[in-house]
From TrEMBL:
It comes from the Bacteria. This is YncE family protein. Coiled coil: none annotated. InterPro entries: Haem_d1_sf (IPR011048), Host-pathogen_enzymatic-act (IPR051200), TAT_signal (IPR006311), WD40/YVTN_repeat-like_dom_sf (IPR015943). It comes from Methylobacterium terrae. PANTHER family: DIHYDRO-HEME D1 DEHYDROGENASE, PROTEIN NIRF.
Amino acid sequence: MPPIDRRAFTSGLCLSGIAALAPSAGPARAQGAAGRSDTLLVMEKGDRSLSFYELASGRRTGRVELPGEYPHEFVVDRAGARAYAALYGAKSSTTPGPGGDAVHVVDLGTRSLARTIACAPFRRLHGIRLDAKDRLFVLSEDRDVLLGFDAPERAERPDRAVATGGIKGHLFALSRDGESAYVANILSNTVSRVRPFAPADAPRIAATGLWPEGNALSPDEATLYVANRRSATLTALATEAMTVTRTLPTRGDVVRVDCGPEGDLILANYAEKSLSLLDPALKEIAVVPLEGAPVALARHPSSPLAFAALEDDRIAVVDLEGRRVQGHLATGREPDVMVVLPG
């Protein structure tokens, strides 16, 4: 299994537990908030696997191999019982080829592949989300269609499909009630709002910048934040009117956006190999240098920690209060999407 990166030993603190990684919270508070048995679930694209890492030790404690090339985005249901992984079937959005046409269902209790949902003829399945009722939505990049599964734990095929109104939809944000999805279309340079349960409603389209990709909804869902990679801008989009309310420059090539429960943002700066921390007013309050290019972000649900998957097969563990990297986890090949499973 991958070893703990010894560069994690900094300032007298080692990657031996969540408490050590969040010293500003105090040992007792950090242990109580995060727990010593939390697990970080990591998609390792290059190894075609979903891996389990114990955060208290950094050890890989389990691994589920997934059929097909390059499984990518995944989500976990509210009970923490199942993970749903979209089979993208390509290394990146610029890689040619037909791509994958399935969703893998992983039983997190037994740590095994439970079954696979066939989605052909819809291929290059990438963006994937669950609403508050655990209904599943999956984005087909090659057909520009959003698929819906009302009961994904037993579904054999999609229950619905709606056109996105854009070209090469890669990622999307979803309202908690599942009634609205906001799709970032990287080739048409647009963001489209679609209503999965109102198929007669036409998509609402907004132009935000060149190559929109990473995006996140504000806590009240009134604003969608969209990173436009080739414009090097961040756009705030009013979700009801689908109008741009603000655009500001970024450090360039932001690939992912994460919005916290208080409205603060984390931007993954791929070209600069850093994270930008923005306050709710979108003011950059800190920049955290990284040792590799970030490709995905995740937050701990109860502790001031963030995780950035890096292209050098490691995950940087970031103390958001201290605004610095606390350590690294060595992983399998091409780590990407991550989810914290509380212990």
